[in-house]
Amino acid sequence: MNEWVIKGATIVDPDGTRQGDVAISGGRISEVGADLSGERVLDASGCIVSPGFVDLHVHLRQPGREEAETVETGSRAAALGGFTAIVAMPNTEPAQDSVAVVEQVRRWGEEAGLCEVLPSGCLTLDRAGERMAPIAELAASGVRLFTDDGNGVQDPLLMRRIMEYSLDLDVVLAQHCEVASLTAGAVMHEGCCSSHLGLPGWPAVAEELMVFRDIELARLTGARVHFLHLSTARSVALVRQAKADGLRITAEAAPHHFTLTDEMLRTFDATFKVNPPLRTRDDIAALKVGLRDGTIDAIATDHAPHPAALKEQPLDTAPPGMLGLQTALPLALGELGLDLPEVVALLSWRPAAIAGVSDRHGTAVRPGAVANLAVFDPEATWTVDATRLASKSRNTPYQGRTMRGQVRHTVFRGTPVVIDGEAQR
């Protein structure tokens, strides 16, 4: 007898769209068809069942800043958002530049049991941008994606050497694109709004120069490079041309960058401070085109929790970052103007391929596949209430906003970890 059956859903996966029940047994999909039976049933009437979502960019804060988030609370938020795998950024304390720290983060993820936690590794020791981290050793321990996120590698020679070193390893180098000398003291996008408010600005060219540099270094070395949280129109155009040239380039965009503009900072509310900053309507339009035409491969949340005491500081001292795991799906459904299968691709199998987990996440809903699944109602509406989000922090920029699209169930390794919108652990 099947342990679980998801009944009444429309299946959306890399194979297309179709009706069918999905039966689960022994952690895997056992049957897909009509009128299946099992010991327990997950009602999915009016819902979509798809491969679970994969987030390439999540800050879990542990170790070192557990007052903001832990692996457990962050993975719970992920499961509630339909994610079955998340890549944990390495800007922890200590940083994820050693096998010992990486293995500890991985163990915390296994203990939580809500989704797969994939620790990233640092590009440089302590993310200081001075010496290369032990990338081969970390890769041997299972790390797939390397980044100094929060910092861009400023030294072009060091970045070239890292790219060259990576060629014999099956890894992805993910760059935070920011020329730091151009952004010192900046609190928001440099433009009309920052000038009007008298606030120091973060110019778009600070991102674009590093995007251009690393495209050319990738052209020189043949390395595989992923650009984190693209935010400007010119960055999108640079990546589009690099892909047309056949380079091994991928990119992501965060929901806040395709939904919110720099005008939100007119209230001086640090909830809207993020790195890279919120940009202009023209930049948002370019990001949406990039997501539609395949220039941008994935939606990644850049989930960045902070305690209220830090976010309530003035703009110049408050840390950048926003929550994102539980609002990614409805924002993608409501803001991009894409067909539903295209949205699911950006959240599921395309990021799964970049993360190197396509053997178990983002796979077609077929018998034999690992049962990592998201079940969501694309028409359900709900209002964001920060106090009811799973994160330990409350810094969502969407407080009070009514959204369309809600996760109903999440199945991780064959076990429902979210049922009817409630986490089971």
Q: Can you characterise this structure?
A:
With 425 residues, this protein is an alpha/beta fold. The protein folds into two domains: 2-48 and 367-423, Urease, subunit C, domain 1, CATH 2.30.40.10; 52-355, Metal-dependent hydrolases (TIM Barrel). The protein is built from twelve helices and 21 strands. The strands form five sheets. Strands 3-2-7-18-19-20-21 form a seven-stranded mixed β-sheet, covered by helices on one side. The chain starts with a strand and ends with a strand. The model has no long low-confidence stretch (mean pLDDT 98).
Q: What topology does this entry show?
A:
Blueprint: E1 2-7, E2 10-13, E3 16-19, E4 21-25, E5 28-33, E6 38-43, E7 48-51, E8 53-58, H1 71-80, E9 83-88, H2 99-112, E10 116-119, H3 135-140, E11 145-147, H4 156-166, E12 172-175, E13 188-189, H5 192-197, E14 201-202, H6 204-221, E15 225-227, H7 233-244, E16 249-253, H8 281-293, E17 298-299, H9 308-311, H10 328-335, H11 340-347, H12 349-355, E18 373-383, E19 402-412, E20 415-419, E21 422-423
Parallel strand pairs: 1-6, 2-7, 8-9, 9-10, 11-12, 12-15, 13-14, 15-16, 16-17
Antiparallel strand pairs: 1-4, 2-3, 4-5, 7-18, 18-19, 19-20, 20-21
